Amino acid sequence: MPLSPKQTRSQLDHLGHFPKKQLGQNFLVDGNIVRKSIELADFGPNEIVVEVGPGLGTLTRAMLAEGVEIYAVERDATLAAHLRAELLLEYADRFHLTEGDAVEFPLAALKTDQGALQGFKIVANLPYAISTPWMERVLASARLPDRMVLMLQKEAADRMVAASGTKAFGAVSIFLQAAFSLVERHPVSPSCFYPEPQVASVLVKFDRKADCKQFGQREREAIRGLFTQRRKQLNALCKRSAYAPELCAWFRQAVEQGLNESVRAEAVPLATWLRLPGFFA
């Protein structure tokens, strides 16, 4: 069972640790959400899991009890030391901890360039400040997870799953939706955390698409650039881009296929964005 709010406060006091707002440290204290996360992850025998920000190890212990092997990344030195003391001896063969920034180590110490590596899943309680850059780093990885079960602040989740034509639609929406489908989404009360966050949270499940597509580095840079001036027409932005030859050719084809010539980036359908890599060959 996860620690209650009182037990969480007591454990943090024992460690001499105060939750750091700048790191988005809101500790999960609701057993139902822990169980729901594991249910959504749907672990099989000997699965590999990446966990971001294990904190005091509430969800970590529950997953280890399922028999999985965990690669975790924790930035906070005090919490990393606590995890090493509490879990490394007991689960030395199945718990691997990296102390560092999750944006720098988006998959902890898991090596995705090994040809024989089996599939893996990600389970993460993501701080708002890193959710978008972390997601972009994951989506640029050599190998993508089969499934992601993520606790996100609602605003971040809304951007990731936004449809074209909405103000929330942007580069991360394109990168994520090219590779993953949203399967489930559940609202999570602030009372499920200690301390209680001042924003709404959601638990989401993403599954990798059978026709999963990834954008290369130049394509990602080009797309990000087109969303930096959202009020300007896409045609003008393509002409001014460092990738003007590729983008202008892509835009001309899209117009020939029916795209409005005065369109802005946020109104371009995902299917049109997915044709962009063909112009960067």
SSE layout:
Elements: H1 5-15, E1 27-28, H2 31-41, E2 48-52, H3 58-64, E3 69-74, H4 77-88, E4 95-99, E5 120-125, H5 128-139, E6 147-153, H6 154-161, H7 171-179, E7 180-188, E8 193-194, E9 201-208, H8 217-226, H9 234-240, H10 244-256, H11 270-273
Structure explained in plain terms:
The chain is of the alpha/beta class. It has two domains: 5-208, Vaccinia Virus protein VP39 (Rossmann fold, 3-Layer(aba) Sandwich), CATH 3.40.50.150; 217-279, Helicase, Ruva Protein, domain 3, CATH 1.10.8. Helix content is 37%, strand content 18%. The protein is built from eleven helices and nine strands. Strands 4-3-2-5-6-9-7 form a seven-stranded mixed β-sheet. The protein has a two-stranded antiparallel ribbon with strand order 1-8. The longest helix is centred in the last third of the chain and has 13 residues, at 244-256. The chain is elongated, with a radius of gyration of 20 Å.
Tag the structure with descriptive keywords.
281 residues, alpha/beta, Rossmann fold, Helicase, Ruva Protein, domain 3, 2 domains, seven-stranded mixed sheet, two-stranded antiparallel ribbon
